[in-house]
Structure formats: C-alpha cells, structure tokens
Amino acid sequence: MADLDMINRDPNNINDFVGVQFEDVLAEPEGAHSIDCVWKASFFCFNIWKNFFYKLATLCCGMCIAAEWGCEFARIAFTHVWIVTPLFKVLEINCGCLQKFWALCVHCCCDPCCEAFGLLFGAFRKD
C-alpha cells in the first residue's frame, strides 16, 4: 500500500474545479465596497463556518460514504473482470465466424461481377 500524503490530498487534481475559498465565492466589484471591518469579519466568518461544517459533515458521513464508493468500485471491477471481458471475448469469437461467412458471401456475389466489368471496361483502351 502506498503512503498516504496528508499534505496534498488531491495529487491528481480531480477536484480543481471546486472553488471553496473566500475569493472564489465572494467578491466586491470596484465602486461597491463594504466597510473594511465588515469585509474582514465576513472573511473570518466564512472560513470558520465553512471549515466547521465541512469537518462536521466528513466526521459524520465521510467514512460511510467512502465505504459505499469502495463497494461500488469493487462491484464495477468484479463485473468487468468476471462478466464484461469474457462477454467481449465470446462476441469476438462469434463475430470472427460471421466475418468469414460474410466475406465468403461477398466474394461469391461481387467478385464475378467485378471481374466481368473489369474485362468489359478493359476493352475500352485509348490507343
């Protein structure tokens, strides 16, 4: 098992789109600024409550949800290993037989016509 990186918890950047910093959510345009103490207090309150509720939610639900997703991906892996891949192998074998049969039918029907047209149009040579 690989070591768990406790600093960078998104090493593959799969959640880069989730902007939950104060600056990603709240912004005052030029000409519409609140009082400095209100803006600073808003920044403080936003971060305190965001961190508190995130930690509370992960404490209450995080392990159960992680277990559910672990089971889901285990089911997907099981299905692909034991059902999907063998099914595709069966289809590949059966389609190989159908491919040979189709090629035989096409060659039997089309080759004589193509040869006849080739001989016919081969007679029209420019000398």
TrEMBL record:
One of its GO terms (cellular component) is Golgi membrane. Keywords: Cell membrane, Golgi apparatus, Membrane. InterPro entries: Caveolin (IPR001612). GO terms for biological process: caveola assembly. The keyword Membrane applies. GO terms for molecular function: molecular adaptor activity. It comes from the Eukaryota. It is found in: Cell membrane; Golgi apparatus membrane; Membrane, Caveola. The keyword Membrane applies. It is a peripheral membrane protein. Belongs to the caveolin family. May act as a scaffolding protein within caveolar membranes. Interacts directly with G-protein alpha subunits and can functionally regulate their activity. This is Caveolin. It comes from Patella caerulea (Rayed Mediterranean limpet).
